[in-house]
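If you are new to this repository, start here. Below is one unmodified record pulled from the training split, so you can see the exact layout before writing a loader.
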Amino acid sequence: MFTVGGRVRSKARAALKSYAIFRPMQIDARLEAMRRLVERADPALFELRDLTRHEARVFSQNGEDGVISEILNRLGTTNRWFVEFGVQGGHEGNCVLLADVFGWNGLFIDGDPADFECLSRKYAGNGRVRTVHTMVTAANIDRCFIGAGVPEEIDVLSIDIDGNDVHVWRQLAATSPRLVVIEYNSGIPAGGALAQPHDPARSWDGSGAFGASLEALDVVAAEKGYRLAHTDLTGNNAFYVRADLWDRLGVDEAPRRSQNFGLTGVTQPPSEPPGGWASLG
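And here is the target side for that same chain:
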């Protein structure tokens, strides 16, 4: 384990998440093969109208790029503004395509000094993209957004901080995203709206004791007026659409997926955070 004082180093964390068991190289080939097959398939083959066939990867960890693009195609956009935190150095993320290819305005936030140095250097000459170095918490999220000039409504919010994601989303009031992409822990035992206790000082230790179950995200989504639109094939990210836009989406139901990291069936052994899981139900 690549740990210092019980915490996974950011570089080791990035390696684990991006290049080892969490996303082996096969995922690119499999997503591309899926795209080619889907293009040739008779529409009558599909039992449900969902977003799985649109999964594709350019800069995202898994198939998030394709799903985000398709949801935006269906919902339309307002100001073409995004916010993503937990983006590390900006080489991989759910909103990198929006910033680098589509030319959107937005905000990237990361709390790791080395990662932020890479992130800020990458976007130093981009007047549309702002970068902020801070550890996002439930206590500072609104202050951070307001200070960075985030509009009251944005098109996309992406949350991936390996732990307190659901608590931060629950407290966010400074903006109303049309689409929220948020990491969930599909390895948490089924049967409850469970999350790690909120602790701003706690970071991911490399185990399965992090984050929140999909059921916990559903609780917060309902409180804030969102509906589940999709979970990706790897069982890693959930996509929530604001309820007032739901009829534009045109899906029958959202799949609720378990762990399938790298599309290889790799899972993490179950474990519990210090103090056990907290119930959000």
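Two things worth knowing about this chain: Residues 86 and 161 are 5 Å apart (CA to CA). The mean pLDDT is 89.
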